[in-house]
Amino acid sequence: MLLLFLQIATKDPLNPLKQDVKKGNLRYVSNVFPHKGYIWNYGAIPQTWEDPGHRDGDTGCCGDNDPIDICDIGNKVCSRGEVIRVKVLGTLALIDEGETDWKVIVINVEDPEAEDFNDIEDVRRLKPGFLQATLDWFKMYKVPDGKPENQFAFNGEFKNRDFAIKTIKDTHSFWKALISKKTDAGELNCVNTCVSDSPFCVSGAQAKAIVDSVSVFYQLFCHTHTHTIIIVWGLFGFNYHAIANYIKITLTEECGESLIVSSMV
Ligand SMILES: [Mg+2]
């Protein structure tokens, strides 16, 4: 079974969720032995941005031009597109093909064990082996695609909760500069509906017109028994309310290949 490699399409208007395409090919997540697919719920924190023009003082590398990634270690396997509240526990500084790519370790606040987890040491103590498996997963996940092993800052050491929160705050401030046009957005599309003082802000009607111009397929597709992606919409401006009201993820299969089309509804 192949897991679709889903991404927030940061270069498309309103940043829909789509299957990633690299060099013209649909992208899938390789299985990293002994795992199948992801070993957590994988997602991103809205309104954060790893600025490619900023060289991180700790990693020595620039940002990967994406929102900051999260790994939710909770027991519930979330649905694709689900928005959840999480508690921050720590972070891992992945260097992915020379770019800083923070992986923030979190737990779903709805998890029955959430109150037992408050910092990275709790993960080490209560879920033995999980941090090592996470490190190994990120080290190896591109190897099946012919790429080298990934590297880590801090020698692969997980940093604690306070460090992670500072990293999130830093990337939130980079996002603020981006959405207010104080930083060059490059090819990123910052059109949004809820950051009212952003020069990229559009009305709901304008946003709907953008979405209506995209063809929509409504054949839902579901991978079960594997951790799939939680998507936190709103890299560049959607708030949670907008997510609930405007966005639906749809998918169809054509010509034997999977194609994901996202839309507001
Ligand atoms: Mg990233």
Explain what the structure shows:
The chain is α+β, with helices and mostly antiparallel strands and 265 residues long. The chain has one domain (3-264): Inorganic Pyrophosphatase (Alpha-Beta Complex). The protein contains five helices and 13 strands. The protein has a five-stranded mixed beta sheet with strand order 7-8-10-9-11, with helices on both faces. A two-stranded antiparallel ribbon has the order 1-6. A two-stranded antiparallel sheet has the order 2-3. β12 and β13 (257-264) form a beta hairpin. The radius of gyration is 18 Å and the shape is globular. The chain binds magnesium ion. Residues 64, 66, 69, 101 line the site of magnesium ion.
Radius of gyration: 18 Å
CATH topology type:
Inorganic Pyrophosphatase
CATH architecture: Alpha-Beta Complex
Spatial strand order of the main sheet? 7-8-10-9-11
Largest sheet: 5 strands, mixed
What is the number of domains?
1
What would CATH call the class? Alpha Beta
Global mean pLDDT:
78
SS content category: alpha+beta
Proportion of strand residues: 15-25%
The ordered H/E elements are EEEEEEEEEEHHEHHHEE
Shape: globular
What is the CATH superfamily classification? Answer: Inorganic pyrophosphatase
Quantity of strands, as a count: 13
Summarize the amount of helix as a percent range: 10-25%
Low-pLDDT residue spans: 215-265
